[in-house]
TrEMBL record:
Entry keyword Ribonucleoprotein: no
CC cofactor: a divalent metal cation
Any one Gene Ontology molecular-function term assigned to this protein's record: metal ion binding
Alphabetically ordered keywords of this record: Metal-binding
UniProt protein name: Phosphoesterase
Every Calcineurin-like phosphoesterase domain range: 1-152
Pfam families with a match to the protein in the record: Metallophos_2 (PF12850)
Organism, as annotated: Bailinhaonella thermotolerans
Amino acid sequence: MNLLLISDTHVPKRARDLPAPVWAEVDRADVVVHAGDWVDEETLDRLEARAKRLIAVYGNNDGPALRRRLPEVARATLDGVRLAVVHETGPAQGRESRCSRAFPDTDVLVFGHSHIPWDTTTETGLRLLNPGSPTDRRRQPHHTYMTARITDHTLTSVELHPLPHP
């Protein structure tokens, strides 16, 4: 199972559209995961129409229309891997222990908000993934997104992809 992980797209405020390589990954992915801060409903509509399956949440920059359509926390079991998605996890310091307590029955937590890519595993085995942002790099060297695979009930091949500067 191929996964595409994105967050903090901020369309149309930070970009007019998702970058072409991200749309290409949408077409390849079995599941697209979006960890919030869409800003516009059109991107949600387009991803819902194009993705084979979309698991998504709203973020702090998403207004009432997006909040009516999306949950604050999304959960799914994908080939035995228990996935949760949330926009904010709080400060980096203490994130692992805080998330382990908040998501005890989760194998992988995808989050956003900071625009800073993150990939760690907690003492309890919870994998924390932040794909950064494909449209708003802030102080990061690149715009980014992540891909991953689930093989034999295990998350594998997690890869951070930098995008060329527009």
